[in-house]
Structures are given as C-alpha cells and as structure tokens.
Design brief:
Helix content: 55-70%
Radius of gyration: 33 Å
Distance between the termini: 26 Å
Largest sheet: 6 strands, mixed, barrel
Strand content: 15-25%
Order of helices and strands: HHEEEHEEHEHEHEEEHEHEHHHHH
Structural class: alpha+beta
Number of strands: 12
Shape: elongated
Length: 406
C-alpha cells in the first residue's frame, strides 16, 4: 500500500472523530504555545539585560574598598577608607589599557527647591564619568576642570529630580536648589535613560565635581570608588591586572596578603546575569515542556482507543493483503498528523501569546527562529514516540483474531 493511500486513510479516520482529535491536539497546542511563550520571555529578558548593561558600559570596571578583619571582626568595604586620590591619579597615569577614569564619592539626602523636595543621591565625579556611564547632557553644559579644582557648587541633574523640583519649569538651568544645606547651581540637564532591568531609575541623580562632594558635603579626603572603562571589552582583563598592580604597590600589599580593595568588571555582571536568565529560561521551558509530555500521553491513550475500536477493520485490511508495516505506518501517520497539526496551531498561539504579554505587561520578548523550530521538532518527535507503541500493537494483531473481535 503506497504512502498516499495510507495518508488518505489516516485523514479519513481523523475526520470521523473530529472532536476527539481536536481534544487530543489540545495538549500539544498548549505545550508548544507555552514553550514558545516562555522561551520568548526568557530570551527577551536576557537581551534587555545585555542591552542595558551595554548602555551602562560593558567595559566598565569598578574599584571599591575591601573589607578588613580586626580582632576577629570583619568590617564592610563601605566603612573602609583605603582608596585615596593618589590611587586614582596613579591608575590614570600608568594604566595603558584604560580609556576613561573617574573618582567617585556619593551621598544621599534631600534636594530642596522652595516648597518642593525629593530624596535622591548626589555623585561626585569628573568629566570622564559621562563617557564611562554613557550619559549625555541634553541641555546646558557639564562642569569643567576649573570647577573641580575650585570645588564649585555646580551640578548637572537627572530628569526625575527636575520633575520633582521644577514641575512647571521646562528649563531650570541656572536655578539654585539645596542638597541638604548646601546650595547647588544647575548648569546642565542629563538626557533621560529611564529605568534599567533591575527597576532602578537611572534619572534619579545629581552629578557634581568630586571635590565639591568631598569637601562640602561629606567632609572627607578619601574616595569611595574609582570607576573606569577599558579600551574595549576584550582588554578588560589586562586593565584589571594593571589596576591591581598599581593598588598593590600603593597599599604595600605583599604577596599572599589579603587585598584591601575589590575590583569588579561590568563584564562579570553581564556574564552572571546572562547565566541567571539562561537558567530561568531553561526552567520555564522545562515547566512548559511538561504540557508536551501530557499531550504525548494523550496521543498514546487515544491511539490505543483507536486501535481497540478498529480491531475488525485492521483484521479486514490484513486479510485482503495489508502487511504489518502498512498497519504500523497507517497509525503512525495518524499520530504524527495529530501532533504536527497541534504543533502548527501551537506555534501560532505561542507567538500570539508572546506578543500579548509584551502588549499587556510591557515586558520585553524575543521570538527566535530556533525556539519555534525546537518546539515544532519536539512535538513531531512526541507524535512519533507516543504513537509508535499503539501502532506497533496494531501491526502485530493476528488477522483471524482481529476479525473475530467484538
């Protein structure tokens, strides 16, 4: 019996039980749709995180004070004063794999203008900080080296702070507000960057000369961080090695001693976040894949029922010359038709569901061709795998016993 005839017989058999066939497909439809939707959400999250880390500077390196252990008690790095301006200057002058570098000191408090006020953070940096963090000034100017030398009380401000302090003023450049009790004059406005993937508002900040924050806000001589960027992402390791060499020499750290500083690269964060999102994607896909398993079991169950119902038909076909492999192929084609048709419908529903999530929840998605191909391939294999045993059982029936079956 040729394949075309077997295909027609399979289609006719499924057509005789449309409702049962659709309900059997439902498990496959739900499984494929769930897998595609979950993978789209997972891949969307991954791409969103990678994009935002890239915007922050994928080649960014952060140097922070390390913890110290005294009397059996370990103090946190934030309590240490191990980073000095000399460390920043020596790294700037001696590290050949670094393109931009800035000291960083930070304070949190209330920004006040008239009756308006808002809690925010102020960052003391130099002009390289804009390049490192990929910020841009949309209006006005950034502070100069002269402002840094004189510890001038000037700043550039993020959009969130401006919206809170100057809701009715479209151009507050030149206005003076207070951070705590210190007056600051706005000389520039930062271009909005919005929220990042971790829910942090990247526009809720004030940027001022680091000398101003050191002397007038915090009254300190040390620095809290050094932020810099490597020449490019592939030179990150070399840049870290140079920073470590400079700080080890400056802090007189001997070989084998614990370092009093920590170096973190944005590349490490990117790798860590990517691995986390990959794991979550796999878990989501695995959970969704259970639906495919359930759908496969449903196919096996229906095929067993179909074999039982059509035992006399099988016996009749065998008695007029149909071979065991023909019966096997017939039922296997039915099983594959159920799974493939369900898979095609599932692909459509999965893509629609993914875009619905993006539309309603404003969540990033990324539908990749391989996820659709994978889901479709899995549902096809499911049809073959779960349809094989019932089809094999049908092909092994004894024709005489099958004809006698009531």
């Amino acid at each position: 019996m040729n394949f075309v005839n077997l295909f027609r017989i399979a289609l006719k058999a499924l057509g005789n039980n449309k409702t049962r066939g659709f309900l059997t497909m439902l498990g496959i439809i739900i499984g494929v749709a769930a897998v595609i939707t979950m993978l789209a959400i997972g891949q969307g999250s991954k791409k969103s995180i990678q994009s935002e880390i890239s915007e922050m500077g994928s080649n960014m390196i952060m140097v922070m004070p390390g913890g110290d252990r005294r009397g059996g008690v370990r103090s946190s790095g934030s309590d240490m004063e191990s980073l000095k301006l000399k460390d920043y200057e020596d790294i700037r002058d001696n590290a050949s794999y670094i393109s931009y570098i800035s000291p960083l000191v930070q304070s949190s408090g209330q920004a006040i203008y008239g009756a308006a006020n808002t809690p925010t953070s102020i960052y003391g940096v130099n002009s390289d900080y804009l390049e490192i963090r990929r910020y841009k000034v949309s209006d006005g100017d950034f502070f100069s080296d002269q402002d840094i030398r004189t510890a001038a009380k000037v700043c550039v401000v993020g959009k969130t702070v401006l919206d809170e302090l100057f809701p009715d003023d479209p151009n507050p450049v030149g206005k003076v507000f207070r951070f705590g009790s210190i007056p600051f004059r706005i000389i520039g406005i930062l271009e909005s960057k919005g929220y990042n993937s971790m829910g942090m508002d990247q526009d809720d900040l004030i940027i001022a000369p680091y000398t101003t924050i050191q002397k007038r806000v915090l009254a300190i001589t040390h620095i809290q961080q050094i932020v810099c960027s490597a020449l490019s992402e592939e030179y990150t390791d070399q840049a870290i090695a140079e920073i470590r060499q400079v700080l080890t020499a400056n802090h007189k750290i001997k070989e084998g001693d614990e370092e009093d500083f920590n170096i973190r690269a944005q590349e490490e964060m990117s790798t860590m976040m990517t691995s986390v999102t990959d794991l979550l994607t796999i878990l989501l896909a695995a959970v969704a894949g259970i639906s495919l398993l359930v759908g496969g079991i449903g196919i096996m169950n229906i095929m067993f029922v179909s074999v039982t119902e059509r035992t006399r038909e099988i016996g009749l076909r065998m008695s007029i010359g149909a071979k065991g492999r023909d019966i096997l192929a017939q039922f296997l084609i039915e099983s594959i038709l159920i799974s493939v048709t369900g898979g095609l419908i599932g692909v459509v529903f999965g893509i629609a569901a993914a875009y619905l999530v993006q539309l309603l929840a404003d969540y990033p998605i990324a539908i990749q061709a391989w996820t659709v191909i994978l889901a479709f391939a899995v549902c096809t294999v499911t049809g073959v795998f779960f349809g094989w045993y019932p089809a094999r059982k049908a092909s092994n029936l004894d024709p005489i016993e099958a004809l006698r079956y009531e």
